[in-house]
Amino acid sequence: MSGLTIDHISHSYDGGKTVLQGVNYHVGDGEFHCLVGRSGCGKTSFLKIASGLMKAEVGHILLDGQQVLKPIADAGFVFQSPTLLEWKTVLENVLFPIELKRKSTLEEQDRAKALLELMKIEQHTYSFPLQLSGGQQSRVAIARALIKNPQYLFLDEPFAALDAITREELQDDLLALCAHHQMTVLFITHDIAEAIYVADHVLVMEEGKIVHTETIDLPKPRTLDTRYSSRFNELGFVLRQALEGVPVK
Amino acid sequence: MKWAPVFSSFVFIGLVTVWELAARSMSELVLPAPSIVFPLLWTELKTGYFTPHLIQTGIEVIAGLFIGSLLGFLLGVFMGEFPWLRSLLSPYVIASQAVPKLALAPLFVLWFGFGMTSKIVITAMICFFPLLENTMTAMQRIDRDKENLFRVLHATRWETFIHLKIPEGLPSIMSGLRVAVVLALVGAVVGEFIGANKGLGAMIIASQGMMDTPLMFAVLILLTVYGMLLYGLVILIEKIVFAKYLYWGERK
């Protein structure tokens, strides 16, 4: 089966509290999946295991039918904090996934600049990370995750620390990029509205289990009108109920 | 803060004035006045009397600092990178530091002779620990998300070390070196106290024997200036060689 399959995953840290309990899920190629849940429900562990960054105690991850034993090579990753290398310029940070192994080509440098332009931070190409605002740093982190044109993108609450307007701008930018590159995305957030706006499918997690999945049938491309549509609010209500443990009709 | 150097100069002038006034009320043998010490220092510098001693202490400090810092850095890297080595060696490293190293100075003179070697060994031993401790801590305190980033990028251990741990740990490592450079002078001078015929420490002992307190003060001033210059040299190296790794926090 093509896509990313999470097959009966269970995990606990050092034999202590169980963070994931027999999770099964499938992420189809080119789909955008969002994971919502309260803090400590196992979202980050799920993402780390699904991306191959961490090994599950029980169960396994399959990528196009092949077992994943190390971080997926064809993937970009955006962490909760931007994790930029402060001693490198913005351009050097974006090119870093390439330059770690070899010198970047002129085409790759042009691609990095184009990504910075797409993320609307081209004026900071030669700035250092600490000269940028939090939102700008997040944009650089996303550009870095996309530099190798990955098939898969894993994002762990990348916009959690940002203000509402910047978040919405970044959500639009991310959606445009993902649509353009036909990427398969697994995105963690604790914001229901954000999940509905960006995703094709939303999973609700609670105490290490997926308790609800919802297909988001909102039209694309998503715009400001989407946020104020009645269907958006209905979906928000359904997911809110799922998060609070109320049986969803 | 642009007036800080001016105020600092006023503090210096104030201290020298207090020293001068205090010295006038007692014997030159106890506290020689700056009006005696500074001309003496200048004269002896001009005649070259201090030169061989300055060179001797300088070589001991530089060699001891280099050897001790390098060994401390290397062991710090290994102990930071390999937890089993840390568990194995930590008790011995702590024990070696718990022994007052200056108390070992006579033993080193006995083992390595009155020449330069014993002073270099003492200096190296003193410089070893700040680098070891700071490097080991730097290796352990790497941002977990950044480490994960390197794992996602399939970086080898060496690549993670070179591209993440060293640059990220450099501020801590360099602060260890700044501590070591000041301690290096202490090591060399104490070594010379125990047994040497050359060097600034030996001069202090000689001036004590001759009851030449102004000379002793002149040497003390030389040592202070020496220590400050060495410290300044480390800061200069930081600013020239490692600026982009150390001063990114100031770009905010």
The tally of beta strands of chain B, per DSSP, is 0
**For the terminal residues of chain B, how far apart are their CA atoms?**
18 Å
Give the helix/strand class of chain B. Answer: mainly alpha
According to DSSP, the number of beta strands of chain A is: 10
pLDDT averaged residue by residue of chain B? 85
Q: In total, how many domains does the architecture of chain A comprise?
A: 2
Our Rg estimate of chain A from Cα atoms comes to 18 Å
What is the terminal separation of chain A in angstroms?
Answer: 30 Å
| Spatial strand arrangement across the major sheet of chain A | 6-7-8-3-9-10
Question: Helical stretch count of chain A?
Answer: 8
**Quick one: overall form of chain B?**
globular
Q: What is the CATH architecture assignment of chain B?
A: Orthogonal Bundle
So, CATH architecture of the largest domain in chain A?
3-Layer(aba) Sandwich
Question: Helicity level of chain B, as a percent range?
Answer: over 70%
Annotated CATH homologous superfamily of the largest domain in chain A? P-loop containing nucleotide triphosphate hydrolases
Gyration radius of chain B, in Å: 22 Å
Return the CATH class of chain B. Mainly Alpha
Could you tell me the mean pLDDT of chain A?
A: 85
Q: Could you please say which CATH topology of chain B applies here?
A: MetI-like fold
